Amino acid sequence: MKLSSEKELEDLRNEIISGRDPNKLCIAVCGGTGCHAGGCSNVAQEIRTELDSKNLADKVDIRITGCHGFCERGPIVIVYPEGIFYQKVIPRDIKEIIASTIENGKIIDRLLYHDPVSGEKKIRVEDITFYQKQNRLILENNTRVDPAQIKDYLAINGYSALAKVLGKMTPEIVIDMVKSSGLRGRGGGGFPTGRKWESTRIAEGDVKYVICNADEGDPGAFMDRSILEGNPHSVLEGMIIGAYAIGSNEGHIYVRNEYPLAVSNISTAIKQAREFGILGDDILGSGFGFDVKVNRGGGAFVCGESTALMASLEGKPGEPRAKYIHTSEKGLWDKPSNLNNVETWANVPMIINKGSKWYSGIGTESSKGTKVFSLVGKINNTGLVEVSMGMTLREIIFDIGGGIPGGKSFKAVQTGGPSGGCIPESLIDMAVDYDRLMEAGSMMGSGGMIVMDEETCMVDLAKYFTNFLQEESCGKCVPCREGLRRMGDILKDITEGKGSMEDILLIEDLAGMLKDASLCGLGMTASNPVMSTLKYFKDEYLAHIIDHRCPAGVCRELITYGIDADNCTGCGMCKKNCPPGAISGERKETHVLDTGKCIKCGICYDVCKFKAVRKE
Amino acid sequence: MTIDESRLDSIIDEYNGEQGSLISILQDIQAQYQYLPREAMDYVAMRLKIPRVQVFGVATFFKAFSLKPKGKQRIHVCMGTACHVRGSKMVLEELERKLGIKAGDTTLDNEYTLETVNCLGACALGPVVVKNEEYRGQMTPIKVGSLLDTKKP
Fold first, then answer.
1. Which of A331, A504, A537, B7 sits at a 20 to 30 Å CA gap from B29?
2. For B76, which residue in chain A has the nearest alpha carbon?
3. Of A341, A554, A175, A529, whose CA–CA distance to B88 is shortest?
């Protein structure tokens, strides 16, 4: 069905909405990656089977949605219209859900979320503290649509912003609107989106490209994937609006091949949009034509950098080039190109629909709107959270994230991925926006937020990121290729107790060189993890260098394991599991660990139920 | 090895033989063979009319490609930051010890290939190990034994 005018789109929308009964029972199953890994597809299958066997298939809808964000509690099942939130659902629970909740309207206590602080049962999504403090402008729709159904997106007012733009707005007005909304790039740099569009619009050339960067290589960040998986049409709508404003007829989406579900959902969305006349020639009868191609990435972190990504789109190794020529003038195939990341594109329809004034009313002076963060690491409520810019780290980590598990204490939070830095506890009341994070020596990045507790060694973490970047460095420029290697060597020495005080000066030297002389953003920001940990956790570096001690008990060369005779019950668990056979002892007698044979794998420490294994 | 040129042709034709689709073409070939046979790379270069060195350059640049055949079963250990702070390194080392190979290698009997991946986005389950597409969360060095068939080293 090709729609050829705004009116036809609205008619179809009304038809879809009027054909749907808002009071009909619907079981929504989260099909995001976290829940998927937790086995949600078996849950969904079980629901179908059970509904069929009870002849309820006509009376109850089932909807497989995108990520709901609360990955810690997955697989998540929500029963509408009441919105009853069931967590950690397994296939065995389905019979009971259908018999009690669907057929008799009874709520199943044991599947509800119990607030760990108050102990209260929470029945609905909006009652749960994890969701209460969020401002889910983008993620909310993930729960309302089946990403494989364009009609679901139309039913929630989808593509109305596009119709408005094509029918009533000139490209200049669109650009002005995005400019005055204050939207900044969500991929890391934070460049004002409207200004980027404008410079591509005025660049000379008939052929221009619009690109969506979905090469989310930042380890520990998965918000772009969740948007692309859960609500792909919102990204497409943003891209089509952008293409109209810029004057482009061809777009590319560069998505990680490690995200098969995202690849499949966006491909389906594109196919459906073409069928409905929303992509292709003469979109909604406006005369404007635009189409999109999906390109799968090859698993290189550096391809998140715009020029490397474009090289990769041309079928070449993903090596960046110097930026003295802007991609807005010469980008993909040397044509003017505009690249934004997934989350940025997904913000656009909302700005058009609700206005730039509304949008710029959210957030801080310099950072408008909301930001999606992936809150991971040593945190109780792992998941995706979307908050207004300017919320403090404390609110995000403790109120939404529920604090640190196991009664341990908070040490630091790492933002911005390998290009970002660590923020210590002393800055926990900092408001999160682009500029405050920069001032603290970190950055927004794509929105990874990795929480660390007292058992995380900051020198080891700096080494982790440096090794990661060294491996991912494309090798084109010497400062990054060689500088990171040396930086990694120095950090390795320090974590092995072979460091010296001069090493710290050398690190600072190398960091300055990397920042000044690297070709692209990867190298320029590569020293952030090291410099920020050195700034806030210098005492830990000194403990490794001077005392040959790792305070967090992580760096293997600096710790020894031993068995505490007072606590050892002689249960034999450690002896049984020790890979090199370094533990000896008779049953029910104190065991002994031979430090000469010990490979410090940590298994005995993990298996001992009596806290008899010491790490020092 | 001999390769089936008609299979390669159908992959290449799907992308209209475009040079810009080199990465996608190689991905599809790898999906068929589980690695990139040298003969297949030569054939792609010929069909796309690009130097072989460009195909080889792309195939070795991107982590997704392998020039070596893989084992029957594939184990991926996630080394993303969230998994790292929760101890994925110890999990990887235990797997290396149990299988007698290093990450990136295949056991001599071609049964297992052990690989690392930078982030799977299943951080809530960290440390995550994926065995033949099946996710196993909250892994510890002790639990990895259950991933392997008992008869294996």
1. A331
2. A258
3. A554
Helix (H, G, I), strand (E, B) or coil at A299: coil
A421 touches chain B (CB under 8 A): no
Q: Within this chain, do residues B78 and B53 fall inside the same structural domain, yes or no?
A: no
In a domain, B108, yes or no: yes
Q: For residue A528, is pLDDT > 60?
A: yes
The secondary structure of residue A408, as a DSSP letter, is P
Q: What is the mean pLDDT of chain A?
A: 94
Number of folded domains that form chain B: 2
CB atoms A315 and B22 under 8 Å: yes
- How far does A76 lie from chain B, in Å, by closest CA? 13
Contact across the interface for A374 and B123, Cβ inside 8 Å: yes
Show residues of chain A in contact with B85, CB under 8 Å: 377-378, 450, 452, 456, 461
In angstroms, the CA A480 to CA A514 distance is 6
| Complex-level ipTM | 0.89
Residue-number span of the structural domain to which B40 is assigned: 5-61
Contact A405, A379 (CB under 8 A): yes
Q: How far apart are CA A110 and CA A96, in angstroms?
A: 11
Q: Is B81 in the same domain as B56?
A: no
Nearest C-alpha neighbor of A436 from the set A473, A392, A388, A497? A392
B121–A414 CB contact, under 8 Å: no
Best of B28, B50, B61 to mutate (most A CBs within 10 Å, chain A): B61
Gap between the Cα atoms of B71 and B149, Å rounded: 14
Residue B153 maps to a domain: no
Helices and strands (DSSP H and E) totals, chain A = 26, 19
CA-only gyration radius of chain A, Å = 26
* CATH number for B131: 3.40.30.10
Looking at the partner chain, which of B26, B58, B81 has a beta carbon nearest the beta carbon of A220?
A: B81
Our CA-based measurement puts residue B64 at a distance from the nearest CA of chain A, in whole angstroms, of 5
Least Cα separation, residue A181 to chain B (angstroms): 31
Task: Name the helix (H) or strand (E) containing A84.
Answer: strand A84-86
Q: Which domains does chain A possess?
A: 24-80+84-123 (3.40.30.10), 150-359 (3.40.50.11540), 370-453 (3.10.20.600), 458-545 (1.20.1440.230), 560-615 (3.30.70.20)
- B45 at the A interface (CB within 8 A)? no
Alpha-helical segments (H) within B21-127: 22-33, 38-48, 52-61, 81-85, 88-99
Residues from chain A contacting residue B132 (CB–CB below 8 Å): none
From chain A, pick out residues whose CB is under 8 angstroms from the CB of B81.
Answer: 219-220, 376-377, 414, 417, 448, 450, 464-465
Give residue-wise pLDDT tens across range A71-124: 989 899 999 999 999 999 999 999 999 999 999 999 999 999 998 878 899 999
Residue in A34, A298, A301 closest to B65 by CB: A298
What is the domain-level CATH number for residue B38? Answer: 1.10.10
Length of chain B counted residue by residue: 153
Residue A441 near residue A531 (C-beta atoms within 8 A): yes
Answer for the pair A200, A245: CB distance below 8 angstroms, yes or no: no
Q: Which segments of A361-495 does DSSP mark as H helices, in order?
A: 393-394, 434-439, 458-472, 478-495
Using a CB–CB cutoff of 8 Å, tell me whether A30 touches chain B. Answer: no
For residue B17, the chain A residue with the least C-alpha distance is A315
Put simply, whether the predicted model's pTM sits higher than 0.90 gets the answer yes
Contact B81 A448 (CB under 8 A): yes
Q: Tally the C-alpha atoms within 13 A of residue A171's C-alpha that lie toward its C-beta.
A: 15
Q: Is B137 inside any structural domain?
A: yes
Note the pLDDT tens digit of each residue in A115-172.
Answer: 887 889 999 998 999 999 999 999 999 999 999 999 999 999 999 999 999 999 999 9
User: Is B130 inside a domain boundary?
Assistant: yes
Tell me which of B61, B90, B109 is where a domain ends. B61
